[in-house]
Amino acid sequence: MKLGSILILTATLTTASLVPQTGQAKSAYQIMTTSAMTMAGQSSRQAKGQLRVKSTDQAIQLVKRQYRGKVLKAQSSRVNGNPGYRIKMLSNQGVVFYVSVDAKTGSVRRN
């Protein structure tokens, strides 16, 4: 077999596998295309930032609603594998403690 024949055969096989010809191949093709589009839509929504807490200021407001005291420091960090915030607080009794805010779920937890 000559090189030109091999290239034509390869191009024909590739085209035939990409373009559905019959009913069963077409439905499998449509399923794969629909699945890929669905996954792309989900990942783009996640990439847009489906976060309940979008800023350090918002995290501080949530913490102040649940705990009395003065905020000493706030920084972004990972909380339960999700983006989040760690807030250092000083209670009215003089005790320093930390509060974690999960940005994805909005949950607030004292450490």
Write a structural description.
The chain has 3 helices and 4 strands; from the N terminus they run αααββββ. It has 111 residues and is α+β, with helices and mostly antiparallel strands. The chain has a 4-stranded antiparallel beta sheet with strand order 1-2-3-4, with helices on one face. A hairpin with a 2-residue loop joins β1 (70-79) and β2. Residues 9-19 and 26-47 have low confidence and may be disordered.
Q: What secondary-structure arrangement, pairings included, does this model have?
A:
Elements: H1 3-18, H2 23-47, H3 56-66, E1 70-79, E2 82-90, E3 96-102, E4 108-110
What is the share of helical residues?
A: 40-55%
List the helices and strands in order: HHHEEEE
Overall pLDDT confidence: 74
Across the major sheet, the strand order is 1-2-3-4
How many strands, what sense, and barrel or not for the largest sheet?
Answer: 4 strands, antiparallel
Tell me the span between the first and last alpha carbons.
72 Å
Rough shape? elongated
* Count of β-strands: 4
Rg calculated over all Cα atoms: 27 Å
**Beta fraction of the residues?**
25-35%
Contiguous helical run count = 3
Low-pLDDT segments, ≥5 res = 9-19, 26-47
Structural class: alpha+beta
